[in-house]
Amino acid sequence: MSLDLPTIWAFVIAFAVFAYVVMDGFDLGIGILFPTFKPGRERDSAMNSVAPVWDGNETWLVLGGGGLMAAFPLAYAIVLPALYAPIIAMLLALIFRGVAFEFRWRDPDHRPFWDLAFTTGSIVGTLAQGITLGALLQGVAVEGRQYAGGWWDWLTPFSLLTGVSLVVGYALLGATWLVMKTEGDMQAHVRRLAGWLGAGTIALIALVSAVTPFLEGAYYENWFAWPNVLLTAQVPLLVLIGSVLFFRSLRKGHERWPFLLALALFGLSFIGLGISMFPYVVPGAVTIWEGAAPDSSLLFMLVGAAVLIPIILTYTGYSYWVFRGKVGEEGYH
Amino acid sequence: MLDDISALTLARAQFAFTVSFHFIFPAFSIGLASYLAVLEGLWLKTGKEVYLNLFKYWLKIFALAFAMGVVSGITMSYQFGTNWSVFSDKAGPVIGPLMAYEVMTAFFLEAGFLGVMLFGMNRVGPKLHFMATLAVAIGTFISAFWILSANSWMQTPQGFIMNAAGQFEPSDWWAIVFNPSFPYRLAHTVIAAYLTTALAVGAVGAWHLLKDRTNPGARVMFNMAMGLVAVAAPVQIFAGDMHGLNTLEHQPAKVMAMEGHFQSHPDGAPLILFGIPDEQAAKVHAEISIPKASSLILKHDPNAPLAGLETVPRENWPLVSVVFWSFRIMVGLGVLMLGLGALSLLARMRRKLYDWPLLHRFALVMGPSGFVAVLAGWVTTEVGRQPFTVYGLLRTADSAAPLDAPAVAASLLAFVVVYFIVFSAGAGYILKLMSHPPHSGEPGLEEHPDQPVRAAGITPAPGITVHHRTSEGDAR
Description:
heterodimer; A: mainly alpha; two-stranded antiparallel sheet; 3% strand; B: two-stranded antiparallel sheet; 13 helices; 6 strands; 67% helix
């Protein structure tokens, strides 16, 4: 595998998507778990723990979308119409979720409504993202340079499975984030939730992983062809180790490790996804080389990305550092 | 075939609807972010509490406007793919990188420092906080730079070759970024954003002056806003004129539609003030016009010939009636803004800026005019670009995604319903905040009515008064 521009960009986009999943994942997870928190103190501190950072987190979604259009315009042009309904649903859900951060403080009389909008937006947005992933993995109909299927093709048992899996997974990230950011009763509550959600996430990872190789010829080859299997087999092995460590750290009362280990499980799943898909950007139809923008586009952006992404990560880190610590200690919203 | 047409029309309606809603928020937040930076700077420099109070007052409004801008903007970055996939495939190699640069240089900068700006005053101290405010303000400007570059390239495309796959392949990025209409559009749009904000801030100040002309916060905001209107309105008219001349050079059909010139005028074209354009008959009914004035404005010579739409094939005409009217709404409002600025100067000379209810009422009525003018200007330039997405090269009809009409109809309906619920609620909250008079000890975003306020700043600077509320729900 030579390191050409399309390959580099495939990794940059993958990085942006993963950064999104890691960061907005716990925001959305908090939204999913919101109804299990008591109105008042518990809900306020859950909200406050992400209020200063959610906007930056969501920007990675814009980079993922904008970057895909820039680096792989053909893939962007095929995938988005193919996944029309879930993508529009995600956008609308994220609107409700996003404005709820501000609106619930402005309007105490209608706070229950905006809390509901926050939860519904988070659940529908996550479900739509999971369905998008599943629908992409199961393949879309392509003719020439266009999507050639209908507007309900995305809906299958598999895409619903990936949708539900992501809801459970994000909820796990949200719960473990709150283990880190809260104290007392609230922490005990989210710690209990994290145990159940961890078990659910791991079971669903196993289920999706078991089904995926049988969706497409290429996936099976990518995982089980000799001698690749020696390398790919490490992924499920690491998931197993990570799972054991996760439950251990949860039981021992660690505050940061459950979140970090949950992220590790997401990271391993993401690597697994990469193994399945590579080198396709639209599975079964368009490889990264076929879908890539001309080199002049990729090079122009790469110069910027190489300089800017490290800077972005630095000040994003600064922003997290400013708002470090338990959310209960200083009411900052 | 009927299905194709209606799917295309629906997709256009959806894009127009979502982008119009979206555009309102950046038009406000670009100006407001700069205004906040000025207020905070003045507070740091002079230590006067009134600036801090105004900063906190407008910060709450900014937070709402910004959140609505973000969520409506994410929609835009995906809609190119969902609804305009052929355009994305062909123009993505040019437009995509410009938008990627917008995300990397502007969106992250804004979002990264917004949290500190909104909630971080007690945590980082005033100096670093000011840096965060500046970063957000600069971010809004950089964002305008890139997105208007992309938009301008669609109007005046250059710096590319067509490749074998039928894509616009970039060959000269400098030529792409700084395409011919870009400097004019950037100047005209950014000044518009400042004017829009000044008019909104001025109207809020005027409203509170009408109720209490001694309110120090209201006086300061009215003074600052009217000062900006007086300067920016004439500058904007000049910038708009330059932009128009540039359009005449590169997109003459758009100017013909703006002017309502169906026929060519070989010896001096009239300036049509009002009339009813009729595209079928290719003439303007009931027109009131000034002879030769259009040639004078556009060519600086009353007898200069000006071609009309009759020289353009009909299939390349924009929607004349829409462009004709939106242009007049924009210009009409611009003239009123100029009048408001002039009146405020007169009030200053007569030392009754804070004591002239007529001026305050005029400023109040003009509050929303910036938003209307921005949208009207946007409609003029975007509808004027039709029937192309990439001017002269890629037709709108050939740009759309292969979607079924019911899919687009369903999504359009969903967007309309959701936007009206969410953005009317948001506009209501903004108006509610604006209806409270600015006052001493203005609460910031850190302090919420139903949460105990903790005086636990890491570097509690002198001048930051952690305000304890006197009455529940006050100014919230």
